């Protein structure tokens, strides 16, 4: 896709804004993971650049994330950073396998209430992640230092919200960062800066194989961490992809994104990075500025590398308050405020899912939160549909009892299904019509088989019509007492491999 001059400028400026926002996040997550800050910065640079070029969602930003950092703490503390690099490489291989098997499409099966909970939870996490910046040596800053910092945060927020009313020629977040930095340096205002977190000066990352024993013992150590990291990374990346799809009214390619995430993590592990995934905050900054081309991610990645190699002295003088203000706005814009207003209007089960996913995302981890939300939604769906299987009966001219089944027959509705029939009261010939019913799983086939056996014991003949091919196994079990009209069986397609 070709870019106009205006679009190119917009993507370049947005990419630079994202690069600024990546610095403190990468350092903070490296500290959480007990690794060198450059390990986080290298991961952010490589993840951002590779996924921007190869990924399935132009405009989405990847880097070192808190979701990955909290998983790897125990591995680093117990075994050291080299085992982390091995786990990151294996994480990438697992993600490549996930993409090669074309499993990314199934992220579209995540219910909307789970998406709302995911977005709201991460918005709160982004907000809470700024709180440590108000601490120094483990203590909260107070007095004049706190007043100055809060004033600068407020100034950054005001610029971000007010500048678009005057002009949209440049991203307001970039102007806010530069304006606050210029103000503090010209007036020699004493406030915390990026340099107070860590030095970002470094060279190019170098290739090296992880210095670990290449044996089954090492695999047993790193595999559990790699698997969790791979799943957490893919879930966050694919849900972020879905969110940007909705924002831009376009459609990304989840399977391609899985492959890109895997390739990026393999390279990251081989070049001394801590691994990562998509970042909803930086992605929101980028897409919110209208930058939905790959160029923005490439500029962000190269910009971050430029900071490490050449611009560390300048970047370390940027006030943390400016970047905190940007992330506060991102948090506020990410949170779906409408979901709070509708909690009392949507079904109670959906409200429960939204709240549960939000809370679990904040206090534990994203993967568990999404899994919990999907399980709750699935159980509610099963409970509701279990009671929606019905039957109407009639007797035809030949004296046969006709049961016309309607609804979905699956594991949760099999008991209700059995209660719809009265074999002892039925005539010798019974027909069950499945034209308006759906047979969904093996439990349903077993239920039909059990029904056939009930009629068989009474010496009665049961005929099934309009069954799906899934029930062919039933004919072998029921023998001659069952007849099925296979020629009229419908075909049901439960998944489409062309998705994604």
Task: Write up this protein.
The chain is of the alpha/beta class and 500 residues long. It has 2 domains: 5-377, no CATH class; 387-488, STAS domain (Transcription Regulator spoIIAA). 60% of the residues lie in helices and 9% in strands. The protein is built from 19 helices and 9 strands. It has helices at residues 5-32, 37-54, 66-79, 81-100, 112-128, 143-166, 172-186, 216-248, 254-270, 280-288, 294-309, 312-315, 320-334, 337-341, 348-363, 366-386, 414-419, 442-457, 472-478, and strands at 62-63, 135-136, 139-140, 277-278, 390-395, 401-409, 429-439, 461-465, 482-485. It has a 5-stranded mixed β-sheet, with helices on one face. A two-stranded antiparallel sheet has the order 1-4. Strand 5 (390-395) and strand 6 form a beta hairpin. Helix 8 crosses helix 9 (254-270). The chain is elongated and about 100 Å long. The relative contact order is 0.16. This is Inorganic anion transporter, SulP family protein. InterPro entries: Membrane-Transporter-like, SLC26A/SulP_dom, STAS_dom, STAS_dom_sf. It is a multi-pass membrane protein. It is found in: Membrane. Pfam families: STAS, Sulfate_transp.
């Amino acid at each position: 896709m070709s870019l106009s001059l205006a679009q190119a400028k917009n993507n370049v400026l947005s990419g630079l804004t994202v690069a600024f926002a990546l610095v403190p996040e990468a350092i903070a997550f490296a500290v959480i993971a007990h690794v060198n800050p450059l390990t986080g910065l290298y991961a952010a640079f490589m993840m951002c650049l590779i996924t921007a070029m190869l990924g399935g969602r132009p405009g989405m930003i990847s880097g070192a994330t808190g979701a990955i950092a909290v998983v790897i703490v125990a591995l680093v503390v117990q075994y050291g950073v080299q085992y982390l690099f091995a786990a990151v490489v294996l994480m990438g291989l697992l993600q490549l396998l996930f993409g090669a098997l074309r499993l990314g499409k199934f992220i579209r099966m995540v219910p909307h209430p789970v998406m709302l909970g995911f977005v709201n939870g991460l918005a709160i996490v982004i907000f809470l992640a700024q709180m440590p910046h108000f601490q120094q040596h483990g203590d909260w800053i107070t007095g004049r230092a706190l007043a100055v910092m809060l004033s600068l945060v407020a100034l950054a927020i005001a610029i971000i919200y007010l500048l678009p009313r005057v002009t949209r020629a440049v991203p307001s977040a970039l102007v806010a960062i530069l304006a606050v930095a210029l103000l503090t340096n010209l007036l020699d205002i004493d406030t915390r800066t990026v340099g107070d977190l860590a030095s970002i000066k470094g060279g190019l990352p170098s290739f090296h194989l992880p210095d670990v024993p290449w044996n089954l013992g090492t695999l047993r150590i790193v595999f559990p961490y790699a698997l969790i990291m791979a799943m957490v990374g893919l879930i966050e990346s694919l849900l972020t992809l879905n969110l940007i799809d909705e924002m831009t009214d376009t459609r990304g390619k989840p399977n391609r994104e899985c492959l890109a995430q895997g390739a990026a993590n393999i390279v990251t592990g081989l070049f001394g990075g801590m691994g990562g995934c998509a970042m909803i905050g930086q992605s929101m900054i980028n897409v919110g500025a209208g930058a939905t081309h790959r160029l923005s991610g490439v500029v962000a990645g190269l910009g971050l590398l430029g900071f490490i190699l050449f611009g560390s002295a300048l970047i370390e003088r940027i006030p943390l308050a400016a970047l905190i203000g940007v992330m506060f706005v991102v948090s506020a814009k990410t949170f779906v405020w409408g979901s709070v207003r509708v909690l009392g209007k949507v079904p109670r089960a959906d409200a429960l899912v939204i709240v549960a996913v939000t809370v679990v995302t904040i206090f534990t981890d994203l993967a568990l939160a999404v899994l919990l939300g999907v399980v709750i939604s699935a159980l509610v769906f099963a409970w509701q549909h279990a009671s929606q299987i019905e039957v109407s009966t009639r007797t035809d001219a030949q004296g046969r009892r006709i049961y016309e089944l309607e609804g979905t027959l699956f594991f949760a509705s099999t008991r209700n299904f059995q209660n719809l029939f009265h074999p002892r009261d039925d005539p010798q010939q019974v027909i069950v019509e499945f034209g308006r019913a759906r047979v969904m799983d093996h439990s349903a086939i077993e239920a039909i088989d059990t029904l056939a056996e009930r009629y068989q014991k009474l010496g009665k003949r049961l005929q099934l019509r309009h069954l799906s091919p899934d029930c062919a196994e039933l004919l072998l079990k029921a023998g001659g007492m069952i007849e099925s009209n296979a020629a009229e069986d419908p075909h049901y397609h439960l998944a489409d491999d062309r998705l994604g």
